[in-house]
Amino acid sequence: MMEKKKSKKSTEGSNGDGCWLLNGNTRLTFGCITVFALLVRVIVSLNSYSGAGDAPKFGDYEAQRHWMEITLNIPAKKWYQNSTVNDLTYWGLDYPPLTAYQSYAHALFLHYFHPDSVALFTSRGHESPKGKLLMRWTVLSSDVLIFFAAAIYFVIVYHANRGKNKQQHMAWHLALILLGPCLILIDHGHFQYNCISLGLTIGAVAAILSKNELVACVLFSLAMNHKQMSAYFAPAFFSHLFGKCLRHRNPLLRVLQLGLAVVGTFILIWRPYLYSVDAVKEVLSRLAPFERGIYEDYVANFWCTTSVLIKCLSATLLGVLLSMVQQIKAPSDLVHEKSILLPLLPATLLALEEPLLFRWLTYFALLSMFPLLCRDCLILPYVALLILFVLIYYIPGIRPTKKRESSPTGLKKLAMILVLLCSFFLHIVYVTLRPPQKYPFLFEAVIMLLSCSQFVTIAAYSNLKQWMLESSIWMEKEKKVQ
């Protein structure tokens, strides 16, 4: 009897909140996944990158290196100012201040081991083997310290009370997050630091799931101060947190607390530029550089300029409005809301709930990046990571399945097969044929059109599913009341 009781207690403990961390097998599994994900990144980083050997401006690799050069050699107040030592036409800083601080920290690292790679003026276009190794290392270390840590934090919180098969599902989920092909190819192939802003966003989501809204506000504010594209998530965070504030015993106090966390973080990040309105405007003009011309050399009149703003703004508002209303009315776990805003990250976090949506979106996100990766000579990593993703997704006995989720049948299945065949055909056409001279970007346009059609379909499905979920929850509550 004593042994049975002990066994039962042990089983309950392994499924309790956080107690699974005492399980050595889970720690070992997480460790293996993390090491493997790191090795995959290292292998991808051995390939080419954006603008390799392509003088005079090269590409994103040179942009990131140049920001390190600038932030290291001139004062912070002048990082966003055009001058004789900071020519903004040559990869001028166009991300928020946290990216500049990140560039400065990495510049110190490069300067210590290889000063020539960040020397003012003379380092332009620097592509020495040692410099490349150090640059790749800055991305790897950022990924591990921020994105890996946030992903593990999220998986722990998300699966805390899931019970049956929790450890298997956690391992599967973590593998999909850490081995997402799109992020690996862009950051460790093409060369960027999206892992930082996305990692901070994942951390903010995990903080909300663990009821730490103040921490979530700080983390998401940091994400927006690293890359302005993080603002696409802002409606989701705002509506969810505002909905929770309305249900707080002291709504005004809670709004004030969260607001102070956001404002305080922004003030801390922007402090070097708060000495004058003009200084702030200089930074803002770099974050939204309209003076460069939205239409480049085509046209620059009132109607064309305003049409972009009006169409983009109205389309964005229409896309997020329904989900925002739903979240304010009944705030649920934020990962559901975010599936409409910047699909790939929330879809990855929702892989357990919506595996088909996640798989479909990941594939077409990869397809949309194919022309860019071809230009960077990253076709082999592209194919390898796509195969790896499929193998992980379909691991026998690991991938969670749900009775309520049925596989597509009939016309839906036929349509999906046709779309996949079309995408496969586009891959072949793009690498083997030349487009008509009159339409040099024809193949890219077709790829974008196909990808966009799937993104729009997924967005519509996400909104519908969210409102259906809300309706079912409301009906369940009504039944309990009766």
UniProtKB/TrEMBL annotation:
Keyword Membrane: yes
InterPro entries (alphabetical): Glyco_trans_ALG6/ALG8
E.C. number: 2.4.1.-
Subcellular location per the Swiss-Prot or TrEMBL entry: Endoplasmic reticulum membrane
Pathway stated in the Swiss-Prot or TrEMBL entry: Protein modification; protein glycosylation
One family name in Pfam for this protein: Alg6_Alg8
Main EC class the enzyme belongs to: transferase
Record's keyword terms, sorted: Endoplasmic reticulum, Glycosyltransferase, Membrane, Transferase, Transmembrane, Transmembrane helix
Record GO cellular component, one term: endoplasmic reticulum membrane
Keyword rRNA-binding annotated: no
Molecular-function GO terms, alphabetical: dolichyl pyrophosphate Man9GlcNAc2 alpha-1,3-glucosyltransferase activity
Transmembrane segments: 133-158, 170-186, 198-223, 253-273, 308-328, 340-358, 378-395, 415-433, 439-461
Protein topology in the membrane: Multi-pass membrane protein
Source domain of life: Eukaryota
Family assignment from sequence similarity: Belongs to the ALG6/ALG8 glucosyltransferase family.
Protein name: Alpha-1,3-glucosyltransferase
UniProt source species: Papaver somniferum
